């Protein structure tokens, strides 16, 4: 997929809800974050059932930090979090680079057993966060 956002800026975008679909959604998310300098609320919500091949095969942490992460993102919400390696990498990246983050809320998919949820919650709590004010909530 070749997408060129040269010259485009979503300067008024403050709230973004993304429904992941396909295998390139994380790359597209980073492109949108990069051109949305005043984004304050980011929600990722799985709606479609998991199908093999529908998630990214691999995700490479970008060499840059989008401006909205370093200067404006306050709330990060992930609904139906699956805990895949790619999900963890993206969550780790957002927590580690969101200077203004006040709240991160992760809502696990309902298919997990209690022990799996507890393990994932511990993994999330151990992820480094750059914002000293950020609060991590898991459900």
Give a structural overview:
The mean pLDDT is 85. It contains four helices and five strands. It is globular and about 45 Å long. The protein is α/β, with parallel strands linked by helices and 139 residues long. It has one domain (15-48, 58-138). Strands 1-2-3-4-5 form a five-stranded parallel β-sheet, covered by helices on one side. The N and C termini lie far apart (35 Å). Helices cover 29% and strands 19% of the residues.
Secondary structure: elements and pairs:
Layout: E1 15-18, H1 25-34, E2 41-45, H2 67-71, E3 75-81, H3 85-97, E4 103-108, H4 114-126, E5 135-138
Parallel strand pairs: 1-2, 2-3, 3-4, 4-5
Protein name: FBD domain-containing protein
Pfam families: FBD (PF08387)
Domain FBD: 67-139
Helix coverage percent of residues? 25-40%
What is the CA-based Rg, rounded? 15 Å
- Strand sequence of the main sheet, in spatial order? 1-2-3-4-5
The general outline is globular
Quote the average pLDDT. 85
What is the end-to-end distance?
35 Å
Number of strands: 5
Classification by helices and strands: alpha/beta
What can be said about the biggest beta sheet? Answer: 5 strands, parallel
Please work out how many helical segments DSSP would assign.
Answer: 4
- Low-confidence parts lasting 5 or more residues at pLDDT below 50? none
* Strand portion: 15-25%
Order of helices and strands: EHEHEHEHE
Protein name: FBD domain-containing protein
InterPro entries: FBD, FBL13/AtMIF1-like
Pfam families: FBD
Domain FBD: 67-139
């Amino acid at each position: 997929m070749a997408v060129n956002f040269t010259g485009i800026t979503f300067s008024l975008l403050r709230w973004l809800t993304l429904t992941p679909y396909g295998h390139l959604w994380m790359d597209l998310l980073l492109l949108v974050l990069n051109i949305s300098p005043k984004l304050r609320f980011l929600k990722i919500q799985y709606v479609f059932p998991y199908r093999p091949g529908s998630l990214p095969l691999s995700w490479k942490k970008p060499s840059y930090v989008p401006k909205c992460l370093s200067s404006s993102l306050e709330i990060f919400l992930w609904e139906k979090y699956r805990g895949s390696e790619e999900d963890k990498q993206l969550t780790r990246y957002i927590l580690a680079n969101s200077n203004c983050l006040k709240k991160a809320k992760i809502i696990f998919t309902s298919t997990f057993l209690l022990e799996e949820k507890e393990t994932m919650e511990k993994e999330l709590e151990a992820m480094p966060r750059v914002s000293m004010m950020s609060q991590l909530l898991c459900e």
